[in-house]
C-alpha cells in the first residue's frame, strides 16, 4: 500500500457548523486548548506532519459527545 496517497482529515469544520457555527475562540476557551492548534485542525493544516495530542482528541470528543471516528477520517490524496 502506498501510504503517501492517504492522509488524516479532521472533520472539525463540519462539527462546528452543526453546533450553530461555534467560533474557534469559544471552543478554545471552553476546552482550554490553544486556538492556533484548533485552527490548524479546522483547516487541516499540515495534517501529514501534525502531532495531535491524545488529550486534545479526548477534550473534543467529550465536549461534542462524539468518537474519534466522528472527528477524523482517512482520505485519499491525488
Automatic annotation (TrEMBL):
<protein>
    <submittedName>
        <fullName>Cro/C1-type helix-turn-helix DNA-binding protein</fullName>
    </submittedName>
</protein>
<dbReference type="InterPro" id="IPR010982">
    <property type="entry name" value="Lambda_DNA-bd_dom_sf"/>
</dbReference>
<keyword id="KW-0238">DNA-binding</keyword>
<dbReference type="Pfam" id="PF13443">
    <property type="entry name" value="HTH_26"/>
</dbReference>
<dbReference type="GO" id="GO:0003677">
    <property type="term" value="F:DNA binding"/>
</dbReference>
<dbReference type="InterPro" id="IPR001387">
    <property type="entry name" value="Cro/C1-type_HTH"/>
</dbReference>
<feature type="domain" description="HTH cro/C1-type">
    <location>
        <begin position="11"/>
        <end position="74"/>
    </location>
</feature>
Amino acid at each position: 500500500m502506498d501510504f503517501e496517497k492517504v492522509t488524516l482529515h479532521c472533520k472539525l469544520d463540519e462539527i462546528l457548523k452543526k453546533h450553530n457555527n461555534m467560533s474557534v475562540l469559544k471552543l478554545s476557551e471552553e476546552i482550554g486548548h490553544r486556538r492556533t492548534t484548533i485552527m490548524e485542525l479546522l483547516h487541516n493544516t499540515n495534517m501529514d506532519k501534525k502531532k495531535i495530542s491524545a488529550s486534545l482528541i479526548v477534550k473534543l470528543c467529550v465536549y461534542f459527545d462524539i468518537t474519534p471516528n466522528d472527528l477524523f477520517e482517512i482520505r485519499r490524496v491525488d
